[in-house]
Amino acid sequence: MAQIGWVFLDDRGGRHRVGLYHGDQSGHLMIHCNLRVVQIDFSVKDTKKYSFFIEDEFCEISVVKEKNGRFGYAFEVNKTVDTPRNRIRRVDERRIRWQMALFIAGFLVVLTAGFLGFRHFSNRQELNQLSRSTLFSKMSMENARRLAYEGKADTAQLFIVKEALRRKVYYGFTTADSSRISGSLDVPDIGPIQLPNGFPLTDRDAFLVTYLPSDPQVHRVDFYQPTRSTIEQYVRLAGEAEHLAHPDISQNRSWCMVLSAAELRGWQSLADFIYQAKTVEENERHNRDSYQRLVRDVDYSRLVREACWDQ
Predict the structure, then answer these.
(1) 179-194: per-residue pLDDT in tens?
(2) CA angle at residue 90 from 89 to 96, to 5 degrees?
(3) Backbone angles phi, psi at 8, to 5 degrees
(4) Which residues pair with 9 in a beta bridge?
(5) Distance of alpha carbon 63 from alpha carbon 50, whole angstroms
(6) pLDDT tens, 238-259?
(7) What is the number of helices (H) and of strands (E) in the chain?
(8) Would you list the domain boundaries of the chain?
């Protein structure tokens, strides 16, 4: 009897043991995951493929009959089939490509400005942009340059803490040499905390942090580069807001509409769903008007019709 095992690590750090038994004579086959039987098949004597979910990942095991009559076995995660997880993955991949394009374009702009003799003005503008979109410790143009060339990347997690009658946000990350670096920022004592990226802060949201290995106190937390788990939190908030605002629509369709917007317009469009009940005076960037512009967009409407027709 063939007995094969694999260990699958999911994106959240979970560890899953997948195994397969295949009888040599009978051909009877059993697939199990975390000591739980997920599939049984009888008289498997030719090439075949089996699919099942681990958490929200679509997994496949291939049983391949080779020319010599023996069987080969393979386990893989299908990252192309249309599932909610793969939609989020595609959004994440588009985000990385878009951010890379923005980074290259920004670098070229700064370089051109330097050659034209507007270095001082360009530096000042870049610092202002950094202050609006990031949390910068020991902010200066020289440190920004050093971070661009020497910086190491990690993940900074944010925590909302109440001290007496005041509220504060702390953040922390761990360097390559296991040093723990932390900091804080002042926030309003009441009401939602809105980040520079336009989204509400939720406890334990995480973002890309870049630090100098020689002096980790020089670092920058980029709120426009959230982790996958934080984007998933944005998707959840957007889906809940959409379903709350339109209870006559099924929850599955609400989620489908949210994921379609993220796929078409990027993760930042999720804020339009979250703040769809706000007026322009309450939220200049994301509000009732920006939501209406999004859902009435021709390309978005077509995508919703194609992707969400059965929801």
Answers:
(1) 999 988 888 888 888 8
(2) 90
(3) -110, 125
(4) 15
(5) 8
(6) 999 999 999 998 989 999 999 9
(7) 8, 13
(8) 2-77, 118-226, 230-307
Distance CA 116, CA 137 (A): 30
For the domain bounded by 2-77, which CATH number is listed? 2.40.128.180
φ and ψ of 285, to 5 deg: -85, -45
Question: Residues 61, 8: contact at Cβ < 8 Å?
Answer: no
What tokens appear for 29 in the block? Answer: 């086959």
- Burial, 266: exposed, middle or buried (Cβ in 10 Å; 0-12, 13-18, 19+)? middle
Q: Which of 54, 50, 53 is nearest to 9 (CA)?
A: 54
User: Residue 192 has what pLDDT?
Assistant: 84
185 close to 135: Cβ distance less than 8 angstroms: yes
In the 8-state DSSP scheme, what is residue 79? S
- From start to end of 143-194, where are the E strands? 152-163, 166-174, 180-186
Residue pair 280/292 in contact (Cβ under 8 Å)? The answer is no
Cα dihedral value 278, 284, 289, 294, nearest 10: -110
Q: Token match 């670092």: residue?
A: 219
Q: What's 194's DSSP letter?
A: B
**Structure-block tokens of residue 72:** 């080969």
pLDDT at res. 1: 74
Residues 47, 66: Cα–Cα separation, whole Å: 8
Summarised one tens digit per residue, pLDDT across range 257-307 is: 999 999 999 999 999 999 999 999 999 999 999 999 999 999 999 999 988
Is the CB of residue 243 less than 8 Å from the CB of residue 253?
no
Residue whose structure tokens are 């610092």? 127
